[in-house]
Amino acid sequence: MIDVLRRNLGVKLLSFLVAILFWLFVMNQGSADKIISDQTLTVPLVVTNLPQNMVVMSQLPLISVRFQGINPSANIKDIYAQVDLSGATAGEHSYSVIINAPVGTTVVDRQPASIKLTLDNVQEKILPVRVAMSGNPADGFQVGTPIVKPSAVNVRGPSSVVSNLDKVTAEVSIAGANDTVEVSPAVSFRDKAGKPILGPNPSVDILSAYPSSVDVIVPITAKGMSTKMISLKVKTTGTVAQGKVLKSVIASPTSVQVSGSAQALKGFDSLTIGPVDLSGLTEDKTFQIPPDQVTLPSGVSFLNGTTISVIAQIGAGPIQKTITGVPVDIRNVGKDLQVDQGISPVDVVVEGLPDVVNNLTPTQIQLWVDASGQAEGSYPNTQLLWQLPPGVTMITTPQVTYSLKAKA
Fold it and tell me: Distance between alpha carbon 76 and the CA centroid of its chain, in Å?
């Protein structure tokens, strides 16, 4: 038997090798990416021309397509089904399924040939952020009132969903915490039962928020201590550079949370920081205020991580400008009189901040003389009355001449 196997061993090995090479050649002639004649494929469905203010609320199915014909250069990855949503309206409607097929192939059948899709209008809504805390702090510690910045976000999504939302959620774990927790979680969306809100395709979000995350501070203090939010005021010294004005000076944040005994916090509602020296400032500046340099009442302290700054906004000082061709009215002329000589438009010099004065036009200025109780005659060198936009003052006091006469 062994002799039989050994006969022509070289020929047998060569034949076996040729068979393997032929099999590899045949396998390489076709690829899973190529289209062969008369086959059925399952292809994805996409939507096109979806109006910007609408969203699809239905799960898109896969489409079964049977082809005939062959195109050696075509790739299966280039085949897909689509529905055209041009001019679509909200609600459930049927749409024809169109197959994108390569040249040289024929679509014999598609299943389904049409589908029902539900569309909804997109709505935006400002919603408050609620902090959902999980876990418990370390033994001997307690949780204070969380602070959220910003406290509200703009939510965008299907109107059928957004209209029923009254808040978004920021989830924070305080398990084992023995110090203030500061995190920036992404906001999440939950229904009234507390369950996540999912779209027709759970892997695709139907709701979005701007901003998408918020900063959350959860005070963790020793038991027996209280926390309180106090407002910040700023004390300044010095004056800004000549030709500049101080537009505003504010603390950032405008309020901070402190901790202490209930007795120590009683009546402590605001804190003045500074003084901040503004001498010679020519542009905006931010001053960092180290919390350890701020004097607090005995028994009161800032929460860990507290940062305080003061923002001074500096603007260009007032400028003067000549406004030409401002019309002048004559008001309260007696019922038996009429204007004999009117008043031509005049030029005036005004002063104010550049962003106001530079855009000032004659129509924004009201000039007039008051003819109440005046008789027929001429009135030379009469001072005008005026009304100017807020922040604008009159530098000159224009004088005009006019005359009245009796009605014919």
Answer: 41
